[in-house]
Design brief:
Blueprint: E1 2-9, H1 13-31, E2 35-39, H2 44-50, H3 56-63, E3 67-72, H4 87-97, E4 102-108, H5 121-124, E5 128-134, E6 142-148, E7 151-155, H6 160-176, E8 180-185, H7 191-204, E9 211-216, H8 217-226, E10 233-236, H9 238-251, E11 259-263, E12 269-273, H10 290-302, H11 307-322, E13 325-326, E14 336-337, H12 340-352
The protein binds 3-isopropylmalic acid (IPM) and magnesium ion.
């Protein structure tokens, strides 16, 4: 039996998690796996309930599970809280507490959606990349951090072991893909980036089959728009990865389509859509559940080792898109408009077919 923790969170979180759980149940039934789901509170939902964004109960639940599937956190209701109390702090806290230092964010174009991109179809057609983002270090976590009178400080810090382990994840992944790593930094300005480059070069010597290239982050932001097809694995630090992964996601048509996996040393992982809690459309039944459903596929692949089952979900998503079904964020002329729940039902039916 596999134990899966569900953390719906805020905004559209509960709606999209409901669909992804439905899809996982359908996969379990089809392939004969017993899946046990338990729900935990995180973010604003947890703050409202007990005053803490990341309750100990939730952490315990995650540690006792094989994998965690999360919706999204945050919303205007909690925006005036101090930084360390905001729902977002709970998300950073759970990543850190579970040691999830490697964030994988694949951006791939579904042929049926190439027209939904803001770039020309011929530019978008080639996109099949993964951003490997370091997730528990860098400027998000460096000390000191805070306010002092009329000054504010954040600190960017990276150590050799932190860079080494994320670099290994990127090279291992590249070996299973197109064999290219682009390491993104700002080594012309930042000392952390110069260390980053040195360490990445050293790690690359263990992977002679992989082609390594270095790119400054500003150039990378530009190259993603100019010729995104050149990238395979983009290896980068916490904040650069945050920014570049939103950019890469949007190239494929909609932020509503992109899944992510956050992994540590073991098999426990946290899976969540790249998009946020979208408070403006929460409760309306129109959110696109596909990023979360594909995050569930990554969960099957990376935490449960169920590769065929994961591929079945991804196939189902492609099939339903090919049939023309679209939530509003990816709608185009001539499509069949559907809501959150209908989209989930369609994926389930495709999986069962
Ligand atoms: C992400 C989000 C988070 C991050 C926020 C909500 C803390 O933007 O997962 O990309 O910056 O890591
Ligand atoms: Mg982000």
């Amino acid at each position: 039996m596999f134990k899966i923790a569900l953390l719906p969170g805020d905004g559209i979180g509960p709606e999209i998690i409901a669909e992804a759980a439905k899809v996982l149940r359908a996969v379990g039934d089809k392939y004969g796996h017993e899946l046990e789901f338990k729900e935990g509170l995180i973010g604003g939902a947890a703050l409202d309930e007990g005053g803490e964004g990341l309750p100990q109960d939730t952490l315990d639940l995650c540690r006792q599970s094989d994998a965690v599937l999360m919706g999204a956190v945050g919303g205007p209701k909690w925006d005036s809280l101090p930084g360390n109390k905001r729902p977002e702090a709970a998300l950073l806290g759970i990543r850190k507490a579970l040691g999830l230092f490697a964030n994988l964010r694949p951006a791939k174009v579904f042929p049926a959606l190439a027209g939904a991109s803001s770039l020309k179809r011929e530019v978008v057609d080639g996109i099949d990349l993964v951003v490997v983002r370091e997730l528990t270090g860098g400027i998000y976590f460096g000390q000191p951090k805070g306010r002092e009178g009329d000054r504010a400080v954040d600190t960017m810090a990276y150590s050799v072991p932190e860079i080494e382990r994320i670099a290994r994840v990127a090279f291992e992944l590249a070996m299973k893909r197109k064999g290219r790593v682009t390491s993104v930094d700002k080594a012309n300005v930042l000392e952390t980036s110069r260390l980053w480059r040195e360490v990445v070069i050293r790690v690359s010597e263990d992977y002679p089959e992989v082609h390594l290239e270095h790119m400054y982050v500003d150039n990378c932001a530009m190259q993603l728009l100019r010729d995104p097809g050149q990238f395979d694995v983009i290896l980068t630090g916490n904040m650069f990865g945050d920014i570049l992964s939103d950019e890469a996601a949007m190239l494929t048509g909609s932020l509503g389509m992109l899944p992510s996996a956050s992994l540590g040393e073991g098999t426990l992982g946290l899976y969540e859509p790249v998009h946020g809690s979208a408070p403006d459309i929460a409760g309306k039944g129109v959110a696109n559940p596909l990023a979360t459903i594909m995050s569930a596929a990554m969960l099957l692949r990376y935490s449960l080792g169920l590769t065929e089952e994961a591929a079945r979900i991804e196939w189902a998503v492609g099939t339903v898109l090919d049939q023309g079904y679209r939530t509003p964020d990816i709608a185009e002329e001539g499509c069949v408009p559907v809501g959150t729940r209908e989209m989930g039902d369609l994926i389930v039916r495709a999986i069962q077919s």
